[in-house]
Design goal:
Residues 2-122 form the Response regulatory domain. Residues 143-214 form the HTH luxR-type domain. Keywords: DNA-binding, Phosphoprotein, Transcription, Transcription regulation. Pfam families: GerE, Response_reg. By secondary structure, the protein is of the alpha/beta class. It has 2 domains: 2-131, Response regulator (Rossmann fold, 3-Layer(aba) Sandwich); 142-211, Orthogonal Bundle (Arc Repressor Mutant, subunit A), CATH 1.10.10. Helix content is 53%, strand content 14%. The chain contains 10 helices and 6 strands. The chain has helices spanning 10-22, 34-44, 62-73, 88-97, 113-124, 132-141, 152-162, 167-174, 178-191, 200-211; strands spanning 2-6, 26-31, 48-52, 78-83, 102-106, 128-130. Strands 2-1-3-4-5-6 form a 6-stranded parallel beta sheet, sandwiched between helices. The mean pLDDT is 81.
């Protein structure tokens, strides 16, 4: 799998490059700003781009804006955003354009190498990988209605679904049976008036669309 990295910190960029290459990924390019990122994606058409939210010259939302351009020009390239802090509106910007092949993690999560690599592989496969803290902010933003219909346990299940976990993963996290998880998920979709969708992945995407205010 081929990856492009966009990170202005030389040390973090080098660390990510070494980590990925020793884990079986090919780093096609490592960019220091948004313009270099877009040029690298256009040239190499990687499987994914790992993008810092804030990059030169303004250190505001250059990475997000570049990611949105990428989604228009190369929708098959997965995007994994990295941020120093929880910036929920940036996740919402990406989710409003697409919920396939999208990830948004805090940089601290990179230290958990296994979880970070799992998240990257998940977005490359077309899934989602949202940081638990970002999910919490999304849930809070939509917390009044209709999420208020959900029980506390159903909100826990919804949060884990939005992180990209499978039914088995949710069951393990909550120490319940998979049949109990399936029942909670059915209740969630009924209460949120979401249409039936087959497969865990499609259910996750539907939840994320709802959290972003879509249909």
């Amino acid at each position: 799998m081929r990856v492009v990295i966009a990170e202005d910190s030389v040390l973090l960029r080098a660390g990510l490059t070494k980590l990925l290459e020793t884990s079986g990924f090919e780093v096609a390019a490592a960019a220091g700003d948004a313009e270099e990122l877009l040029a690298a994606v256009r040239e190499h058409r990687p499987d994914a781009a790992i993008v810092d939210v804030r990059m030169p010259p303004g250190f505001t939302d250059e990475g997000v804006r570049a990611a949105l351009v990428m989604r228009r020009e190369a929708p098959d390239v997965a995007v994994l955003l990295l941020s120093q802090y929880v910036e929920e509106r940036y996740a919402a910007d990406l989710l409003s354009s697409s919920t396939s092949g999208i990830g948004y993690l805090l940089k601290d999560r990179v230290a958990d190498v296994s979880a970070f690599l799992d998240a990257l592989r998940r977005v490359i496969a077309g899934g989602t990988a949202l940081d638990p803290e970002v999910v919490a902010q999304l849930l809070l933003r939509r917390g009044s209605d209709p999420l208020g219909r959900l029980t506390p346990r159903e909100r826990e299940v919804l949060s884990l679904m939005a992180e990209g976990r499978s039914n088995a993963g949710i069951a393990a996290a909550l120490v319940v049976s998979e049949s109990a998880v399936a029942k909670h998920i059915n209740n969630i979709f009924a209460k949120l008036d979401l249409p039936h969708a087959e497969g865990d992945h499609r259910r996750v995407l539907a939840v994320l669309r709802f959290l972003d205010g879509g249909t």
